[in-house]
Amino acid sequence: MMTGRIQLKFPKKSILVTGGAGFIGSNFIIYMLKKYPDYQIVNLDDLTYAGNLENLAGIKNNRNYKFYKGNICNELLVEKIFQAHHISHVVNFAAESHVDKSIVDPGVFVKTNVLGTANLLSITKKFWSRENGFKDDVKYLQISTDEVYGSLGNSGLFSETAPLDPHSPYSASKAGADLLVKAYYDTFGFPINITRCSNNYGPYQFPEKLIPLVIYNAIHLQPIPVYGDGLNIRDWLYVDDHCTAIDLVLHFGRAGEVYNIGGNNERKNIQIVDRIIEYLHNHADRRIDRSLIRYVEDRKGHDRRYAIDASKIKIELGWRPVTPFDVGIEKTIQWYLDHKTWIDSVVSGEYRSVMEDMLA
Asked: Is 27 a member of any domain?
């Protein structure tokens, strides 16, 4: 059994992290450079609205870090990166991920999430089979989501063997990408893993997602939109705990396996909203209270409940989430309070337009 607390010495690796300027990707890069100072990290990100190089300002001059601006669909650029850096590992975070946007424009999600993954797999296979025939220490890790499983009832958990049943264009595109990755293992013996995580929260998350959206609107005394009755349930995972899980799967995951990563923190959406309001009311502005909540028309195809069975990664790799939700949520809220200029800088006119449409 492995454990995230064991400090092991690994040969130097050259890791391509796609989507590394986004929320989870940037936290992962910072984590990896701190834990493995000899590893080379190459970050490929198209810097769309949710990608922000300010997330990585603290490591931009690190000699083992290199950034490329571009899309994973760009075959020539991806090949250039492999040639220049002799990539040994790929961690694919790159994805369009906002469900509401996928309902408006599904094609963009198919292009990035499915065709982009296909391009990345094809080039990775070409270079690795040419150089070592998959015999050396190489790994392709696809970062997926629990949304590919669909919706649960009032009980039960998603295991890795649960059937895929996506209900939005976003989750369908992620499921399609997962199946492509699995097919590369089944057909070519390609060294892959897939991780499917529950809802992440923490620093640097773009405020289209529930927690930073509530924080941003609340501190600006703007209406806080809540879909439907607010009783949809999600399992919440602090982003640092997710990074430790990815690290373990990258180094020790059995080839071809899927690993679920969950936080064991099921909460109704309205409970999350109330917890944030309570903290901000007590620590930031007494004017912030439940009067800001606005119940809005439910999202199309809105899954009722997600919950992850993470026993496989716990048994095989010794991983456990270590951040209690009450600790993680307070750290997260305080981070946004301490970084108001960051959140103001990333909120665009497009975000405000989405808010206006939701609250209309």
From this structure: yes
Is 346 a domain residue? no
> Considering the domain boundaries, does residue 66 fall inside one?
yes
- β-sheet with 40-45: strand ranges across: 65-69, 40-45, 14-18, 89-92, 139-145, 192-197, 258-261
Q: Which residues are catalytic?
A: 146-147, 170
Nearest Cα neighbor of 253 from 313, 309, 183 is 313
Q: Which H or E element spans position 89?
A: strand 89-92
Task: Answer for the pair 88, 81: CB distance below 8 angstroms, yes or no.
Answer: no
pLDDT digits (tens, 9 = 90+) for 57-105: 999 999 999 999 999 999 999 999 999 999 999 999 988 866 777 787 8
d(CA 246, CA 224): 33
pTM greater than 0.70? yes
CA end-to-end span of the chain, whole Å? 53
* Segments forming the whole domain that contains residue 320: 14-202+236-265+303-324
- Is residue 278 exposed (0-12), middle (13-18) or buried (19+ Cβ within 10 Å)? middle
63 C-beta neighbours (distance < 10 Å), count = 7
pLDDT at residue 231 tops 80: yes
The residues pairing with 77 across neighbouring beta strands, listed in sequence order, are: none
**Residues facing 260 on adjacent strands:** 196
- Rounded distance, CA 104 to CA 201, Å? 25
Q: Residue 168: inside a domain, yes or no?
A: yes
pLDDT in tens, 189-211: 999 999 999 999 999 998 888 99
Q: Give yes or no for residue 360 having a pLDDT over 60.
A: no
* CATH code of the domain covering residue 194: 3.40.50.720
What are the tens digits of pLDDT across the range 305-329? Answer: 989 999 999 999 999 999 999 999 9
Q: Which of 194, 296, 180, 279 minimizes the C-alpha distance to 245?
A: 194
Q: What is the DSSP letter of 39?
A: S
Domain count, the chain: 1
